[in-house]
Amino acid sequence: MFGKGKPIEIKSVDELALMRQAGLVVAKTLEKIRSEIAVGMTTADLDALARESIADHGATSSFLGYHGFPAVICASVNDEVVHGIPGERVIESADIVSIDCGAIIEGWHGDAAISIVMPDAAEDISALSEVTQSSLWAGLAQARVGRHLSDIGHGVEECIRGAGGYGIVEEYVGHGIGSEMHMHPPVPNYGRPGRGPRLEAGMALAIEPMVTMGTANVQVLDDQWTVVTSDGAAAAHWEHSVAITDDGPWVLTSLEGTRL
User: Fold this and answer.
1) Could you tell me if 103 and 207 are in contact, meaning their C-beta atoms sit under 8 angstroms apart?
2) Which residues of 205-214 are buried (b: 16+ CB within 10 A; e: fewer)?
3) How far apart are CA 82 and CA 74, in angstroms?
4) Backbone φ/ψ region at 44: left (φ over 0), alpha (ψ -120 to 50), beta
5) SS (H, E, C) 12-55
6) Measured between alpha carbons, how far is 115 from 179 in angstroms, rounded to an integer?
7) CA distance 140 to 144
8) How buried is residue 9: exposed, middle or buried, by Cβ count under 10 Å (0-12/13-18/19+)?
9) What's the pTM value of the predicted model, to 2 decimals?
10) Percent of the chain beyond pLDDT 90?
């Protein structure tokens, strides 16, 4: 998936600008889903919202048809960690729903994910999502020129371990992104600092911690896509695409285009 052994793609200023356009489409699409999701909707309804949003913004989906994937978002509910296929599953009031979305503008990709905690979800579910989101930002803060790749995963892990009691999924990790959705290098959400290649201006990475309430062990369902926790515990998934620039990390998939 990651093109092992390939160099890390370096983007020009103009190419990063196109990635920002794609990232903004993703951000607006996720915000649309966040604002319109309601108890009683199906995950297929959420996919329809995303299809409309991506098309309305003049983009195409990174996900639709990717290795045969049949939708424009991944919708993963409760114990589903990632890669959930939208369908007839009905959203309930105590659910946590993770939505992963990708879009393409002129051949350049943006990729992000959010976890939406429904209104009657338990407090520990809300805490799980908050810790996962915080760990994402801890990783993003390490995406700086001169740092090592493993500093990102170390930042993510330190945040999660500091909260205590959570599992960090190791089988599924972040990735390089740019002219393809999944590119070299893989970006784990754990590890010792100071290892791997040094980060350079023009690199772009998708950082995406996946955190569980229980065991970090996961398995894939018979649909060959949906990844679930082995113990049935809930999971959260947050992701942003970030560009490494001389001025610091540029979060391409935030609505504000946050610079850290």
Assistant:
1) no
2) bbbbbbbbbb
3) 7
4) alpha
5) CHHHHHHHHHHHHHHHHHHHHHHHHCCCCCEHHHHHHHHHHHHH
6) 26
7) 9
8) middle
9) 0.96
10) 97
Residue in 125, 132, 74, 131 with CA at minimum distance from that of residue 96: 125
In this prediction, residue 257 has a pLDDT band, given cuts at 50, 70 and 90, of confident
The 3-state secondary structure of the chain, one letter per residue: CCCCCCCCCCCCHHHHHHHHHHHHHHHHHHHHHHHHCCCCCEHHHHHHHHHHHHHHCCCEECCCCHHHCCCCEEEEECCEEECCCCCCCECCCCCEEEEEEEEEECCEEEEEEEEEECCCCCHHHHHHHHHHHHHHHHHHCCCCCCCEHHHHHHHHHHHHHHHCCCEECCCCCEEECCCCCCEEEEECCCCCCCCCCECCCCCEEEECCEEECCCCCEEECCCCCCEEECCCCCEEECEEEEEEECCEEEECCCCCCCEC
- Beta-bridged to residue 187, according to DSSP, are 174
Give the tens place of pLDDT for each residue, 52-104: 999 999 999 999 999 999 999 999 999 999 999 999 999 999 999 999 999 99
Q: Contact at 8 Å (CB) between 234 and 96?
A: yes
Please compute Rg for the chain using Cα positions: 17
Burial class (CB in 10 A: 0-12, 13-18, 19+), 23: buried
Give me the residues paired with residue 212 across strands. 167, 235
| Diameter over CA atoms, the chain | 48
- Which amino acid is residue 138, in one-letter code? A
Under a CB-based contact definition with an 8 Å cutoff, are residues 108 and 18 in contact?
yes
Six-digit token string for 140: 């993003």
Please give the domain boundaries of the chain with CATH numbers for all domains: 13-251 (3.90.230.10)
